[in-house]
Design a protein that fits this description.
Elements lengths: L22 E2 L2 E2 L5 H11 L3 H12 L2 E9 L3 E2 L15 E9 L2 E8 L8 H19 L3 E6 L7 E5 L5 H10 L11 H13 L5 E8 L6 H13 L2 E8 L6 H5 L3 E5 L2 H15 L2
Parallel strand pairs: 6-7, 6-9, 9-10, 10-11
Antiparallel strand pairs: 1-2, 3-5, 4-5, 7-8
Helix pairs in contact: 1-3, 1-4, 2-3, 2-8, 3-4, 3-8, 5-6
Length: about 280
Protein backbone atom coordinates (compact mmCIF):
# COMPACT_ATOMS: atom_id res chain seq x y z
CA UNK A 1 0.00 0.00 0.00
CA UNK A 2 1.32 3.40 -0.97
CA UNK A 3 4.20 1.90 -2.98
CA UNK A 4 4.70 1.83 -6.77
CA UNK A 5 3.07 -1.25 -8.26
CA UNK A 6 5.86 -1.94 -10.79
CA UNK A 7 9.20 -0.52 -11.78
CA UNK A 8 9.95 1.11 -15.16
CA UNK A 9 8.76 -1.02 -18.07
CA UNK A 10 9.09 -0.92 -21.82
CA UNK A 11 5.82 -1.58 -23.62
CA UNK A 12 6.38 -2.53 -27.26
CA UNK A 13 3.67 -3.75 -29.61
CA UNK A 14 6.09 -5.56 -31.89
CA UNK A 15 5.85 -9.34 -32.07
CA UNK A 16 8.24 -10.98 -29.66
CA UNK A 17 8.91 -7.77 -27.74
CA UNK A 18 10.37 -8.06 -24.28
CA UNK A 19 8.59 -6.50 -21.31
CA UNK A 20 11.60 -5.22 -19.41
CA UNK A 21 14.81 -3.36 -20.12
CA UNK A 22 17.91 -4.79 -18.50
CA UNK A 23 21.39 -3.32 -18.28
CA UNK A 24 24.76 -5.10 -18.28
CA UNK A 25 27.97 -3.13 -17.67
CA UNK A 26 26.00 0.09 -18.13
CA UNK A 27 24.63 -0.98 -21.52
CA UNK A 28 21.00 -1.77 -22.31
CA UNK A 29 20.51 -5.38 -23.39
CA UNK A 30 18.71 -5.77 -26.71
CA UNK A 31 15.42 -7.60 -26.25
CA UNK A 32 15.05 -10.60 -28.54
CA UNK A 33 12.49 -10.83 -31.34
CA UNK A 34 11.86 -14.49 -32.16
CA UNK A 35 9.41 -13.78 -34.97
CA UNK A 36 11.78 -11.41 -36.73
CA UNK A 37 14.62 -13.90 -36.17
CA UNK A 38 12.70 -16.54 -38.13
CA UNK A 39 12.12 -14.07 -40.97
CA UNK A 40 15.83 -13.24 -41.14
CA UNK A 41 16.73 -16.94 -40.90
CA UNK A 42 14.52 -17.71 -43.90
CA UNK A 43 16.14 -14.88 -45.87
CA UNK A 44 19.71 -15.78 -44.97
CA UNK A 45 19.25 -19.51 -45.60
CA UNK A 46 22.46 -21.53 -45.80
CA UNK A 47 24.69 -18.76 -47.11
CA UNK A 48 26.99 -19.00 -44.10
CA UNK A 49 28.12 -22.57 -44.72
CA UNK A 50 30.75 -21.93 -47.40
CA UNK A 51 32.15 -18.93 -45.55
CA UNK A 52 32.41 -20.96 -42.34
CA UNK A 53 34.43 -23.65 -44.08
CA UNK A 54 36.87 -21.11 -45.50
CA UNK A 55 37.33 -19.26 -42.21
CA UNK A 56 37.65 -22.36 -40.08
CA UNK A 57 41.39 -22.84 -40.52
CA UNK A 58 42.16 -19.30 -39.36
CA UNK A 59 39.71 -18.89 -36.51
CA UNK A 60 38.89 -22.35 -35.21
CA UNK A 61 39.99 -23.64 -31.83
CA UNK A 62 43.12 -25.75 -31.96
CA UNK A 63 44.74 -28.38 -29.80
CA UNK A 64 48.22 -27.80 -28.45
CA UNK A 65 50.56 -30.20 -26.70
CA UNK A 66 52.41 -29.13 -23.60
CA UNK A 67 55.32 -31.21 -22.27
CA UNK A 68 56.46 -31.35 -18.65
CA UNK A 69 58.92 -33.33 -16.56
CA UNK A 70 57.63 -36.23 -14.47
CA UNK A 71 58.70 -39.14 -12.25
CA UNK A 72 56.94 -41.55 -14.61
CA UNK A 73 56.37 -41.58 -18.33
CA UNK A 74 58.82 -41.66 -21.25
CA UNK A 75 62.52 -41.41 -20.47
CA UNK A 76 63.86 -38.04 -21.60
CA UNK A 77 67.50 -37.47 -22.56
CA UNK A 78 67.36 -33.81 -21.60
CA UNK A 79 66.41 -34.73 -18.01
CA UNK A 80 69.09 -37.38 -17.39
CA UNK A 81 71.41 -34.85 -15.73
CA UNK A 82 69.04 -34.90 -12.77
CA UNK A 83 70.50 -38.28 -11.72
CA UNK A 84 73.48 -36.37 -10.38
CA UNK A 85 71.17 -34.03 -8.46
CA UNK A 86 69.26 -36.87 -6.81
CA UNK A 87 66.16 -35.71 -8.73
CA UNK A 88 63.89 -38.50 -9.97
CA UNK A 89 62.06 -36.31 -12.53
CA UNK A 90 63.93 -37.83 -15.47
CA UNK A 91 60.84 -38.72 -17.47
CA UNK A 92 58.62 -36.60 -19.67
CA UNK A 93 54.86 -36.48 -20.10
CA UNK A 94 52.71 -34.45 -22.43
CA UNK A 95 49.10 -33.43 -22.39
CA UNK A 96 46.88 -31.89 -25.01
CA UNK A 97 44.90 -28.77 -24.26
CA UNK A 98 42.42 -26.83 -26.33
CA UNK A 99 42.93 -23.08 -26.59
CA UNK A 100 40.95 -20.43 -28.37
CA UNK A 101 43.15 -19.14 -31.15
CA UNK A 102 40.79 -16.20 -31.74
CA UNK A 103 38.17 -14.19 -29.90
CA UNK A 104 35.95 -11.81 -31.84
CA UNK A 105 34.10 -8.62 -30.95
CA UNK A 106 31.50 -7.28 -33.37
CA UNK A 107 30.18 -3.74 -32.99
CA UNK A 108 27.36 -2.67 -35.30
CA UNK A 109 26.01 0.73 -36.36
CA UNK A 110 22.52 1.62 -35.06
CA UNK A 111 22.67 5.32 -35.93
CA UNK A 112 19.86 7.13 -37.73
CA UNK A 113 21.75 7.09 -41.02
CA UNK A 114 21.00 3.35 -41.30
CA UNK A 115 17.22 3.85 -41.31
CA UNK A 116 17.04 3.93 -45.11
CA UNK A 117 17.15 0.13 -45.33
CA UNK A 118 20.79 -0.32 -44.27
CA UNK A 119 19.75 -1.29 -40.73
CA UNK A 120 17.99 -4.35 -42.10
CA UNK A 121 21.06 -5.20 -44.17
CA UNK A 122 23.24 -4.86 -41.06
CA UNK A 123 20.99 -7.26 -39.12
CA UNK A 124 21.26 -9.78 -41.95
CA UNK A 125 25.05 -9.38 -42.05
CA UNK A 126 25.26 -9.87 -38.26
CA UNK A 127 23.12 -13.00 -38.53
CA UNK A 128 25.46 -14.40 -41.19
CA UNK A 129 28.52 -13.49 -39.15
CA UNK A 130 27.05 -15.03 -35.99
CA UNK A 131 26.27 -18.23 -37.86
CA UNK A 132 29.80 -18.43 -39.27
CA UNK A 133 31.46 -17.81 -35.91
CA UNK A 134 29.13 -20.25 -34.16
CA UNK A 135 29.87 -22.94 -36.73
CA UNK A 136 33.58 -22.47 -36.15
CA UNK A 137 33.22 -22.31 -32.37
CA UNK A 138 34.80 -18.87 -31.99
CA UNK A 139 34.15 -16.97 -28.72
CA UNK A 140 32.42 -13.70 -29.62
CA UNK A 141 30.68 -10.63 -28.27
CA UNK A 142 28.26 -8.43 -30.23
CA UNK A 143 27.53 -4.80 -29.41
CA UNK A 144 25.45 -2.15 -31.15
CA UNK A 145 26.56 1.47 -31.06
CA UNK A 146 24.54 4.69 -31.14
CA UNK A 147 21.14 3.26 -30.21
CA UNK A 148 18.23 5.69 -30.05
CA UNK A 149 18.11 5.29 -26.25
CA UNK A 150 21.10 7.64 -26.03
CA UNK A 151 23.72 5.26 -24.62
CA UNK A 152 26.98 4.74 -26.49
CA UNK A 153 26.49 0.97 -26.82
CA UNK A 154 23.93 -1.72 -26.28
CA UNK A 155 24.66 -5.39 -25.63
CA UNK A 156 23.46 -7.90 -28.22
CA UNK A 157 25.49 -10.94 -27.20
CA UNK A 158 27.95 -11.43 -24.35
CA UNK A 159 30.70 -14.03 -24.64
CA UNK A 160 28.66 -16.24 -22.30
CA UNK A 161 25.37 -16.01 -24.25
CA UNK A 162 24.38 -18.84 -26.56
CA UNK A 163 23.75 -18.82 -30.30
CA UNK A 164 19.96 -18.85 -30.08
CA UNK A 165 19.93 -15.81 -27.78
CA UNK A 166 22.26 -14.00 -30.18
CA UNK A 167 20.02 -14.60 -33.20
CA UNK A 168 16.90 -13.42 -31.35
CA UNK A 169 18.62 -10.27 -30.09
CA UNK A 170 20.12 -9.44 -33.48
CA UNK A 171 16.58 -9.59 -34.85
CA UNK A 172 15.38 -7.30 -32.05
CA UNK A 173 17.92 -4.58 -32.84
CA UNK A 174 15.38 -2.84 -35.10
CA UNK A 175 13.76 -1.34 -32.01
CA UNK A 176 16.93 0.59 -31.12
CA UNK A 177 17.89 2.04 -34.51
CA UNK A 178 17.95 5.83 -34.65
CA UNK A 179 20.88 7.37 -32.77
CA UNK A 180 21.61 10.95 -33.80
CA UNK A 181 25.33 10.51 -34.57
CA UNK A 182 27.87 7.84 -35.59
CA UNK A 183 30.52 7.65 -32.83
CA UNK A 184 32.67 4.94 -34.37
CA UNK A 185 35.78 6.03 -32.46
CA UNK A 186 34.16 5.80 -29.05
CA UNK A 187 32.49 2.51 -29.97
CA UNK A 188 35.81 1.00 -31.12
CA UNK A 189 37.49 2.07 -27.88
CA UNK A 190 34.83 0.52 -25.63
CA UNK A 191 34.54 -2.70 -27.63
CA UNK A 192 38.33 -2.87 -27.91
CA UNK A 193 38.84 -2.42 -24.17
CA UNK A 194 36.42 -5.27 -23.46
CA UNK A 195 38.11 -7.51 -26.02
CA UNK A 196 41.61 -6.71 -24.71
CA UNK A 197 40.60 -8.17 -21.34
CA UNK A 198 39.51 -11.47 -22.94
CA UNK A 199 42.08 -14.27 -22.83
CA UNK A 200 42.81 -15.40 -26.40
CA UNK A 201 45.85 -15.72 -28.64
CA UNK A 202 44.33 -13.61 -31.43
CA UNK A 203 41.75 -10.84 -31.06
CA UNK A 204 39.60 -9.58 -33.93
CA UNK A 205 37.11 -6.74 -34.04
CA UNK A 206 34.57 -6.33 -36.82
CA UNK A 207 32.96 -2.89 -37.11
CA UNK A 208 29.77 -3.14 -39.20
CA UNK A 209 28.64 0.25 -40.46
CA UNK A 210 27.20 2.11 -43.43
CA UNK A 211 29.62 4.95 -43.58
CA UNK A 212 31.61 7.83 -42.22
CA UNK A 213 32.09 8.43 -38.47
CA UNK A 214 30.83 11.63 -36.90
CA UNK A 215 34.04 11.61 -34.81
CA UNK A 216 36.55 11.04 -37.63
CA UNK A 217 39.69 12.06 -35.72
CA UNK A 218 38.69 9.95 -32.73
CA UNK A 219 37.82 7.02 -34.97
CA UNK A 220 41.26 7.13 -36.60
CA UNK A 221 43.04 7.53 -33.26
CA UNK A 222 41.10 4.78 -31.49
CA UNK A 223 41.46 2.31 -34.36
CA UNK A 224 45.22 2.82 -34.24
CA UNK A 225 45.23 2.57 -30.44
CA UNK A 226 43.42 -0.77 -30.15
CA UNK A 227 45.47 -2.12 -33.06
CA UNK A 228 48.69 -1.26 -31.19
CA UNK A 229 47.29 -3.18 -28.25
CA UNK A 230 46.84 -6.43 -30.13
CA UNK A 231 43.36 -6.14 -31.63
CA UNK A 232 43.02 -6.69 -35.38
CA UNK A 233 40.32 -4.20 -36.47
CA UNK A 234 38.39 -4.92 -39.67
CA UNK A 235 35.65 -2.63 -40.95
CA UNK A 236 32.69 -4.19 -42.78
CA UNK A 237 30.96 -1.45 -44.76
CA UNK A 238 27.50 -1.89 -46.29
CA UNK A 239 26.22 0.72 -48.74
CA UNK A 240 28.03 3.35 -50.79
CA UNK A 241 31.65 2.58 -51.62
CA UNK A 242 32.51 6.27 -51.16
CA UNK A 243 32.04 5.69 -47.42
CA UNK A 244 35.26 3.67 -47.45
CA UNK A 245 37.50 6.58 -48.47
CA UNK A 246 38.51 7.47 -44.91
CA UNK A 247 39.45 3.83 -44.29
CA UNK A 248 41.48 3.62 -47.48
CA UNK A 249 43.25 6.91 -46.76
CA UNK A 250 44.35 5.69 -43.33
CA UNK A 251 45.37 2.21 -44.42
CA UNK A 252 42.71 0.48 -42.32
CA UNK A 253 41.48 -3.01 -43.18
CA UNK A 254 37.98 -3.11 -44.63
CA UNK A 255 35.60 -5.10 -46.81
CA UNK A 256 32.81 -3.39 -48.73
CA UNK A 257 29.51 -4.68 -50.09
CA UNK A 258 26.40 -3.00 -51.41
CA UNK A 259 24.16 -5.49 -49.57
CA UNK A 260 24.41 -7.90 -46.68
CA UNK A 261 24.68 -11.21 -48.53
CA UNK A 262 27.75 -9.92 -50.38
CA UNK A 263 29.58 -8.84 -47.24
CA UNK A 264 30.72 -12.22 -45.89
CA UNK A 265 32.07 -13.34 -49.31
CA UNK A 266 33.89 -9.99 -49.53
CA UNK A 267 35.38 -10.63 -46.10
CA UNK A 268 36.37 -14.20 -46.96
CA UNK A 269 38.09 -13.07 -50.15
CA UNK A 270 40.36 -10.77 -48.11
CA UNK A 271 40.72 -12.82 -44.95
CA UNK A 272 44.24 -14.02 -45.81
CA UNK A 273 45.37 -10.41 -46.18
CA UNK A 274 43.52 -9.32 -43.03
CA UNK A 275 44.90 -12.02 -40.76
CA UNK A 276 48.43 -12.26 -42.15
Amino acid sequence: KGQPLVGPMVIDGDAGAGASKDFVDGMPVVQGDKVMAEVIKATVGRKANVAANRLRALLANREETESFSSRTGRLSDKHLHRFALDDTRIFEKSEERVEDTAAVSVTADLSGSTQNGIAEQIRMALTLLEKVLNEIGTPREILGFSPKTGELNCLVKAFSDNHRVALDRIAGMHRLVGGDHTPIGSAVLQAGARLMSFDAQRKLMFVVTDGIPSDSETAIEMTKYVTRNGVNVIYLVIGEESSCEWLKNNGFKYAHASKAEELIPALVSKVGEFLA
